[in-house]
CTP synthase (Natribaculum luteum), 552 residues
Amino acid sequence: MPTEPETNYDPSLGSKFIFVTGGVMSGLGKGITAASTGRLLKNAGFDVTAVKIDPYLNVDAGTMNPYQHGEVYVLEDGGEVDLDLGNYERFLDEEMTSEHNITTGKTYQHVIEKERAGDYLGKTVQIIPHITDDIKRRIREAAEGTDVCIVEVGGTVGDIEGMPYLEALRQFAHEEPEENVLFVHVTLVPYSKNGEQKTKPTQHSVKEVRSIGLQPDVIVGRCEDKLEPSTKEKIALFCDIPTDAVFSNPDVEDVYHVPLMVEEEGLDQYVLEHFGLAEEALPEGERANEWRDVVTTEKDGEVDVALVGKYDLEDAYMSIRESLKHAGFELGVDVNVHWVAADEMADHHTERLQESDAVIVPGGFGMRGTEGKIEAVRYARENDVPFLGLCLGFQMAVVEYARNALGLEGAHSAEMDEDTPHPVIDILPEQYEVENMGGTMRLGEHTTVIEPETLAYELYGDTSCSERHRHRYEVNPEYFEHFEDEPLVFSGTAGNRMEILELEDHPYFLGTQFHPEYKSRPGRPSPPFLGLIEAVLAGERDEIEYDEEVTH
Ligand code: GLN
């Protein structure tokens, strides 16, 4: 039986749609441009949501290697999605669901299930109309109840895999009143050797878009600098759009400044006018301004954090880096993240860690680098260095403590060592029978009960917190008694599950079985990250006071 209901969508209900495609090459940051535009529309008083289309055959990002695709972002409903959804959540401060990440895997799976159920009544089931209809339905459902829905198509126009989506968007636009849809094409404007902005790649890419039957309404040129007026004119002429529909997307120091840049270029105003929403928008003086205030906070000082992980790729730990930035905004400091390769820790870990003010051991899967992660925990615990362990990092903190403080020799997680004499971390009971890898972990939002008068309570300011999860293993209940009357306490629990650990008599030693990084936002930093940076700054203050005492 088909699992998802079909809807009778009525275009007069009136969401507006911004379709964003990319040309020339991927990785131009079209998602950030789109999310930034969305942020400004939200500031102007509209309900904005976003959909990310990933034309790959995976059903979701859950089984994908972070090395190739960056981190798997986890949503409130447990959806394991593309990291662009993380950017949309952070920029729009709206919660998305799994339905906001459309993949070829999801679409085909649904259509084939319907075919097997006999729902197509003997028809030949085809990409057009059946797959394209399903894509359109998904976009409309995700947009329901909002004023504006941004739909970003992953990859580059011309990719074979993206074709059914572009065809679906073409049909979609045909079915909607013209003023309800805006096509934005983001391309690259490189410099020639003699410093000239070159429009030829843009022209070729727009030609490709038009051959599919789409005409961009707006072109955004990614360039090191702003586009010169003559470049804009050339693009307008060759791509058949007004010059004021060509916008620059120059390099900026921080992605959070992109909305400020988009506003300066006037893209948001252009969008509002196209949709006939300019009159309804809040007058400029009344628009929300917190974003600007937060992201332009004056910075005074720097904090260096060592991230002891498996991948040296910025995108693999994107939400952690962003969470640290959010904490930095709040506290007025720049937070520099230094990657330390967990599997090479044995050689040079102490130097690398000693150069840092704090240590984070992030989430992860599999054996590689675990001994290095355990060493990093030990270093932080023994040297009073502020520490945050996230998911696997929490589990490694339990293992480290079991081995080195409780004397449970050979203690480990059953994930890493099936034959460990002390499986202090063991598989979740409900996972015994699970065979499939995709979408089967303990996922999404769960509530943690927090013990009063603990660090966790101080951080969250509440007796509970709600955070997102993604794990198969947990603290083994058979070992709870070993931790009784120890300075390591489990200050957050969910029934019989240990969710937060902390160490008494340490400046800051916190581990969470959940991933607080997915709910951190600019202006609303995640408490465990804020606490980590605060602890570093408090330590520095102590040192200064101490110095003063000495000199006086
Ligand atoms: N591999 C560990 C588990 O499955 C931790 C998962 C994670 O860090 N996301 O429980």
In short: The pocket of glutamine is lined by residues 363-365, 391-392, 415, 470-473 (CB under 6 Å). The chain has two domains: 11-295, 302-541. Residues 302-541 form a domain with the Rossmann fold fold (CATH 3.40.50.880). The chain has 17 helices and 21 strands.
